[in-house]
Amino acid sequence: MALRVPQSGGPQLFKEGYKNLQGLEEVILRNIQATKEMSEITRTSFGPYGRNKMVVNHLDKLFVTNDAATIIRELEVVHPAAKLLVMASQQQEAEAGDGTNYVIILASELLQRAEPLLRMGLHPSEIARGYELAMDEALEQLDTLAVDEVKVWSEQSELLKAVRTAVASKQYGQEHVLAPLVAEAVQASMPRDATRFSVDNVRVVKIMGGGLAQSRVVHGMVLPQAPETVCHNAQFARVAVFSCPVDMGQTETKGTVLLHNANEMLDYTKGEEAQMEQAVRELHDANVKVVVCGSGVGDLAIHYLNRFDMIVVRCPSKFELRRLCRVVGANPLARFGVPTPEEMGYCDEVRTDEIGGDRVTILRQWSASELASRPSADRPAFADRIQRSPLVTVVLRGATVNALDDAERAVDDGVNVIKSLTKDARLVPGACATEMELSRRVQERAEQTPGINQHAMKAFGQALQIFARTLGDNVGVDSTALVAKLIAAHHASASDGLVGPSIGIDVECENEPRVLDAKEAGILDPLSVKQWAIRYAVQAALTVLQVDQIVMAKTAGGPKLPKQQGNWDDQD
Q1: Can you tell me the distance from the alpha carbon of 34 to that of 39, in angstroms, rounded to the nearest whole number?
Q2: For the purposes of burial, counting CB atoms within 10 Å of the CB of 90, is it exposed (0-12), middle (13-18) or buried (19 or more)?
Q3: pTM
Q4: In this structure, how many other beta carbons lie within 10 angstroms of the beta carbon of residue 445?
């Protein structure tokens, strides 16, 4: 081994404070170590028996979850190599809605498998070329492993095939409750053209109390508060939506009013009252029955709205206000006044219901069968021409805020899986069966590949076994014996017994590892989710692997003030 001779100081290239790292030991191996530490945080949260993480973010908000997307979003990662993995997993979340932990685990394992090859003397470019060949082979073989697909989008049994596995990975043991809720909600909001399905049409409202089994699906928009007025129910109602407060306008400048006697004080507010009464009367004359506002409602406005028997509902979230506008076909107005017929919305039914101990307001449009059974002359002619969205609300019940948040994430994952299936409806075996079969086929391909690329391809195939090892560790069994059983099952040529490409892990095993047929057990994953996850993981790993130098500038900002006892201006 050659002795490193210190070089004399040459010309200064950068400003003072720059850090310049280069070489195998200082850059590549350190980056691999950083990505390994990143994956060790999320690896233990993988699968149905994944452990929860307790994360307190910079705002002192507590998160207790096993959802990798939430964990990495709340962690402030500063290492540049680990940040690349975080960005790849965030892109996976945006593209497929699931598989974020998959990307981090696979990318980190690929880099760890590359470390011994680098120490053997292989160049990073040669490893990258082998990984690219292995990725192409894996994606090609993945298409041949499809065992089922969603054929009819209007049947819950078809939707449940994919939703059950996605929900079980987040809320294991509760998938029999949450999966039918997700399937029912998606079925109700699914358009005739399934490719136009929007995840925004399925929303979640969390109401404390009760248990998860008391959760239900409500067709329409549910606002978690009662109306501000006495009137609580209406049918065939015109709706006015305001993004401003329903109150008298306030002047931007301060003024002083001088009152000389008691009559002037009594007459002071009469003009304001008359103006508010006139505004509410104009709304009533325009047949507006329901008023929705994005801000507060004044006491004077509530008084006159009660007098004219109108409903007022507050919707403080601007995102919820947009959704409500889509449901009723209205345009939000920035000023309090009478909307034009084009700006006005319409709702078949507005009612107040009680869920647990909380009162909620439900706005919904009737289905075609309901309209046929309950025709009414009060229904305006323009109601059928309004472009309305078939929004559905999943009302979740639970004992704690963290439990409700986790259930909401499971519902979101199920809906996102359906969205990805509308683009590609094929399903592959879950329970790590697909990864083990891809591992076998990629390694067989590597043995047939001449040249130096076969080493990296073989490392790629071995890296795919990390999911089975992780799942075994999280279940609590011997992961080495479990992987050995899976390898034997996938390499066996017999036609009877638990052998073949759909053999996966049975997480219900207690003492010793056990395998099952994932296809027969109904454990199926969307093919497109795994496709994108493999792509993003390999691209992130190759990006980290091909970095040979890190140049970091000095952090902006002046020196920090020294900590002193007492006030800074105290004179000793």
Answers
A1: 9
A2: middle
A3: 0.85
A4: 21
